[in-house]
Amino acid sequence: MRNRALSMIGIAAKSGKVLSGEFSTEKAVKTMRAYLVIVAEDASDNTKKMFSNMAEYYETPIVFFGTKEELGKHIGKEFRASLAITDENLANAVASKIKSSFDADSKTE
Length: 109
Known about the structure:
Elements lengths: L1 H13 L3 E3 L1 H9 L5 E4 L5 H13 L4 E3 L3 H7 L7 E4 L2 H21 L1
Parallel strand pairs: 2-3
Antiparallel strand pairs: 1-4, 2-4
C-alpha cells in the first residue's frame, strides 16, 4: 500500500500539481494553494514543527509520510522533506492512499 501512495504522489508530480522544498511548500500553504502537505518522516524536528504549526494555522491537511529519499525519488528530484499538492482531487486521492497504507501497516503489527 505504501508504494501505491508514493506512486500517486508521482502521478500528481507528473501532472504539475506538486510543489516541493521548504520554500515552495511554505508559499503554497500561505497563499492557500496547498490542499495537502506531506512532510517526510525523517525530516528534522524543526521542519515537522514548523509545517505542523503552519498547517494548523492555515487549516491545511498535513501528513507525515515516507522518507526524504522516497519523496524525492517519486517526484523525480533529489531528497525532499516537504511537498504541497495543489490540486484538490489529487490531494484527496493521495491522502486516501496514505491513509490506506497506514491502516494496512497497523493491521500487520
